[in-house]
Design brief:
Lysozyme; mainly alpha; 188 residues; 65% helix
């Protein structure tokens, strides 16, 4: 072999290996970045409240990063970050299966959050508006829908006046889309 061809051949082999292995490595990384913990609980609650599992996972990922002991600066607790009054409201309307009322219990938290999410989607008729209400509260969102500078039709939000809520809706939407691509449509 002529001098200097070995490094070129080695580089070509490495590039070929990368071409074939990169999609597998990327796919594995995506599944690690978008996990599906608490599978049985999520499946049960998604079925009970007619929600997509991928949506519940997206909210859980954004809200707590799957940390069941998470607490926010606003006092929201658990996997899906419900404030104590909201958790109690949903628990009184839709008692958790185990009879518990612990916002840090994954089953209780996912159950009450799913009940709330179903209520918000039914009330507003729009996932985007429901997600805004999940984050900012129904009172704020209902007020925004009444103001022409935020909503042209009283049903959709043209502008979300809270930057945190606007970012939240976008982030959940992106996570939801990724979960759907990974677990429903498949990537790669």
């Amino acid at each position: 072999m002529k001098k200097g061809r070995f490094p070129v051949l080695l580089l070509a082999l490495l590039l070929l290996a990368l071409l074939f292995l990169a999609p597998t490595v990327v796919n594995r990384a995506l599944y690690l970045l978008y996990p599906k913990p608490f599978t049985e609980l999520v499946q049960r609650e998604a079925a009970e409240f007619a929600l997509e599992e991928e949506l519940l996972y997206a909210i859980m990922k954004v809200e707590s990063g799957f940390d069941e002991k998470a607490c926010s600066h606003a006092g929201a607790c658990g996997l899906m970050q419900l404030t104590p009054p909201t958790f109690e409201w949903m628990a009184s309307q839709h008692p958790p299966e185990n009879g518990g009322r612990d916002p840090f219990d994954p089953g209780d938290n996912i159950h009450c959050a799913s009940a709330l999410l179903r209520r918000l989607i039914d009330h507003y008729g729009s996932l985007e508006v429901a997600l805004a209400a999940y984050n900012a509260g129904m009172g704020n969102v209902s007020g925004w829908l009444q103001e022409g500078r935020y909503s042209h039709d009283g049903k959709t939000l043209d502008v979300i006046p809270y930057p945190e809520t606007e970012a939240y809706v976008k982030k959940v939407g992106k996570c939801y889309s990724m979960y759907c691509k990974l677990y429903k449509g498949g990537i790669g």
